[in-house]
Amino acid sequence: MSDASLSALAAQLVAKQVSSRELAQQYLDRITALNPSLNAFITVDADKTLTEAAAADALIAAGKAGPLTGVPIAHKDIFCTDGWLTTCGSKMLHNFIAPYDAHVIQRFKAAGMPSLGKTNMDEFAMGSSNETSYFGAVKNPWNTAYVPGGSSGGAAACVAARMAPAATGTDTGGSIRQPAALCGITGLKPTYGLVSRFGMIAFASSLDQAGPMAPSAEDCALLLNVMTGFDPNDSTSLEREKEDYTRDLGKPLTGLRVGLPREFFAEGLNNEVAASVEAAVAELKKLGATTVEISLANSKLAIPVYYVLAPAEASSNLSRFDGVRYGYRAPDYANLDDMYCKTRAQGFGAEVKRRIMIGAYVLSHGYYDAYYLQAQKIRRLIANDFTEAFKTCDVILGPTAPGTAFKLGEKSEDPVEMYLNDLYTIPANLAGLPGMSLPCGFDRQGLPIGLQLVGNYFSEAKMLNVAHQYQRATDWHARAPEGLK
Amino acid sequence: MKWETVIGLEVHTQLATQSKIFSGSSTAFGASPNTQASAVDIALPGVLPVLNKGAVECAIKFALAIGATLNRINVFDRKNYFYPDLPKGYQISQLAKPIVEGGVLTFLVPSTGSGQPEERVINLTRAHMEEDAGKSLHEDFQGVTGIDLNRAGTPLLEIVSEPEMRSSAEAVAYARALHTLVTWIGICDGNMQEGSFRVDANVSVRPVGQAEFGTRREIKNLNSFRFLQQAIDYEVRWQIETLEDGGRIEQATVLFDPDTGETRMMRSKEDAHDYRYFPDPDLLPVKLDEDWIESVRAALPELPAAMQLRFQNDFGVSAYDAGLLTGSRALAEYFEAAARACGQGKLVANWVMGELSATLNKAELDIMQSPVSSRQLGALVARIQDGTLSGKLAKQVFEGLWEGAGEVDAIIEARGLKQMSDSGELEKIIDDVLAANQKSVEEFRSGKEKAFNALIGQVMKASKGKANPAQVNDLLKAKLQ
What we know:
Strand order of the largest sheet of chain A: 4-6-5-10-11-9-7-8
Oligomer: heterodimer
Structural class of chain B: alpha+beta
Distance between the termini of chain B: 65 Å
Strand content of chain A: 5-15%
Largest interface: A-B, 44 and 28 residues
CATH topology of the domain at 6-251 in chain A: Amidase signature (AS) enzymes
Radius of gyration of chain B: 29 Å
CATH superfamily of the domain at 6-251 in chain A: Amidase signature (AS) domain
Distance between the termini of chain A: 18 Å
Shape of chain B: elongated
CATH architecture of the domain at 6-251 in chain A: Alpha-Beta Complex
Shape of chain A: globular
Order of helices and strands of chain A: HHEHEHEHEHEEHEHEHHHHEHHEEH
Number of helices of chain B: 15
Radius of gyration of chain A: 21 Å
Largest sheet of chain A: 8 strands, mixed
C-alpha cells in the first residue's frame, strides 16, 4: 500500500477501498514510528491532518473528488501554513505560527489533499545536507549515518521512507533535485515563475521555485498540475494557460535528442555515478533517443555566480527577521541596535550568517559592480549557453550531484566542499530552466544515484515523459529502503 | 565677503491612491495604529509586493505636467537599512532607473521690496516612486517605543530639483508651486499637517563668483512653508558664520526645531548608511506603453501655466493676479465661474483676492467651503457693474451672502441697499447738507480741498450710504462752483 502511486491511491479512495482518514492515519503511524530516527518532520499535527482528511472524504462521498482528493502530502516547512508552526528550519521562526496559507498550500488544500505535516529543511533553505536545520539533521533512510541532501532533505527522506506518498519542496540551487538524488526519489524544479512564490519564505527571490517530490515522474506530473498557475499575489508569476503535465506521458521517445554536456561528465564526478548515468543514457537510446554532445562552457562559473547572487538577495530577504514583529527576540538587550545584533546573532545559524555577510559584502558600496553586476552578466551568459544547446537537443542529461550521499558531518566544516554538491543543479536555477532528478541506480554502499534532466523553458511535460518512459523501463524509482525502524 | 546661497529640494509627495503601493491596504489617514497594515505591510515571512498601477499613473501625470522624460522601462530597487518602522528591513524605491527624469517648474517669486515679482524656471532632476515607512511612537509609551505600520507602504513620489534656487524665498516659491501642481493634477492631497507633502532642503553657501558648490547640509522633513523658510534662513546664517569664523562645513543631515528656530545635527557623513541598493527581484521592471501614457495625458486637466495665460487673455488680469488666482485648482475654477457669470474678470479678481480671501482666511475656510458661491459672487459683481451697488454697499450684500441671507437681489431689496439713482432726491440731500455746513463750504471756497471730502462724507452719511459716490462728487462740484 505504501508503495502505491498517487494515481493508484486516488483510485482506491474513489473506489472507497480506503478512506482519506484511514490513509492519513496509516502515514501518520509510519511517521510516528520512523520520525524519531529520521527526523524528517519538524511538525506533525494528527488532529489537523485527520480533520482535513475527513473533509476530503466528504468531497469524495459527494462525488466532488478531483484527481488527487484525499491523497495526503507533506509540506516543506518553508511554506506558510495557516495555523501551523512554520519555522523554515530556523530558531528565528521556532515559534512562528503562520496566519495565512502560501499559494502552494492553498492549491493543495483546494485539491483536497490533507497535509501530513511540515518537513525538516536546511535553515532558510541554505544547505545541501540538511545539517543546518535548527531542528537537527535529517537522516538518509537508505543509511541513517548519511545525509539526505538538502535543503529539501526532510521532504526527500519522508518520501523515500514512505512516510508520505509525496511532498512539496523548493529549489534555489538544487534543493529539490539534489536531495531527491541522494534519497532515490523523483523531484522536479519547474520553470521559474510557473509556481507562485507567495507564502514561500524567500531565500533568493530570483532563483527560488517550488516543485513536487514523489517516487515517480508520473506522480510529479499529477502534483505539478495542482501546483502551477498564475497568482496575482506574485509579480513574477507567469500568466499562461493551464497545462496538463500528464499529457505527454506515454509518447514514445523515438527521435528524442538528448544533449550531454561535456562539462557535466568531467573531473570531479564520482565513477559510480558516471557509470550509472551512462547506463541510463544507453537505456534511453534503446527507447529511441539519440545523443548529442553539447557544451555549457560558462557553467563552470555557476557556483561563484550563485554564491554572489543568492547571498545578495538573501541578505536583504532575511532583514525582516529583526525581532521586532514576530519570531525570535533575544531575551536581554541594552538598546535597539543591541536587540538587532543579539536577536540575529542568536536566531540565525552559522551558514545563514555566513551567507548574509557574503551578500551584504557583495552589495556594499564599491564592491557592487565587481561582484553583483559582474555575476548578473555571467548569469546571462550561462542562460545563453542553454539557449544555444537547445538548438541541437530536446533535453539535457547529466548527473544530479557529483556523488552519492555523504556521511553526516563529513562536509559540514567545509562550506566550499559542500557548495560543490550543487555544481550540476545551479545552472538551471540561474537560467530559470526546469530541471528534474530521477533515480538511476545505486552505488556499492547501496546509496541511490540521481540522474538530472534539464529542459527548455516550459518543457516540463516533455521532460516528465522522458523520465516516465525511463521509469517504465527500469525500477530504480520503485525501490524503497528496507528494514527501517 | 559676499555669499551666495544654493538650495535644492527633495519633496516627498504622498500619492492620492486608495490603497498602498504594494498591498491592498487602505491609505486613509488617522486610523488606529496597525489597523491598516496587512500581511504584506508588516512583512510577514513569504509575502510579496504587487505594484499598484494607480501610483504609476500618478507619476505619469506628474511627468506630463512638467514636461519630463518618462522612462518607458523603470526599475524598483531595494534600499536596505534596519529600523523598527521599516518592516522588511528595506524600502522599495527607485535608484538607477527612476520613472521620471528632467522637467521644469516655472513660477513667480514675490518681490521683497515694491518691485515686480520675478519669474523663475527650475529644472527637476528626477522623480521616483517609493514606499513610505511606518511611524515610531515615542510619546505614548513608558520606556518602550510603539510602532504604527498604517503608513508603511503608502505610495510616495520623491521629486528632486536641481540645486538652482538661490534664496529661501525662491525655495518657498518653488515648493508652493510644486504643491499647487501636485494637488492641481490630483496626485496628492497636499495636506502638510498629515505629512502628505514633506520637504528636504539641501543647503550650501559659496562666495559670490565661485563656480564650485559649497558643502551641503540636508535639512530633513520640513512640513510647512514657514518652517522651510525659517530653516533655510537659519541654516544659511549658520553656515556663513561658521565659514567666516574660519570653520568648515561638514556634510551632514540636520533637523529643524520649530521651537528654537534652529537646525541641529542628526548624522554626519561618516554615519551615513551604505544602503546596498540592488534591483528588487520580487518586482518586474515597470513598462509604460504609449497607449497608457496617452490615455493619462488625455485625462489631464488644464494646467496652471496654461490657465494663467488664458486668464490674462480672456479676463485682462495681470500676470501676477493670474498667478494668485491659479494658486489652487479650486480657486481658479471659482474665479473663472464667477468671472463668466458677470463678464467682469478684473473686478471679480479683486473681489476673490480681496474680500472673499480675507473673509475665508478669518473664518479658516478654504475656497471649496466658501458660503458664497461663485455664481453669487458673479451676481454681486454684476450689480456693482450696472451701478445698483457701490463698493461699500456691495460689501454689505457680501456679508448677507456670507450669512446665507439669500440671493444678491433679494438681499439688496430686503436690506434696502440699492444705490440712490434718483438725482432729485440726492440733490435735496446735498442742498440740506450744504445749508447745514456753511463753515465747510466757506473753507472749501477759500481753498481748503479737505473740506470737500468732509462734505462728501456728510452727504453719504445723510443718504445712509446709498448715494452713488461718483454722482455725489459731480453734483457737489457743480453746486460749489
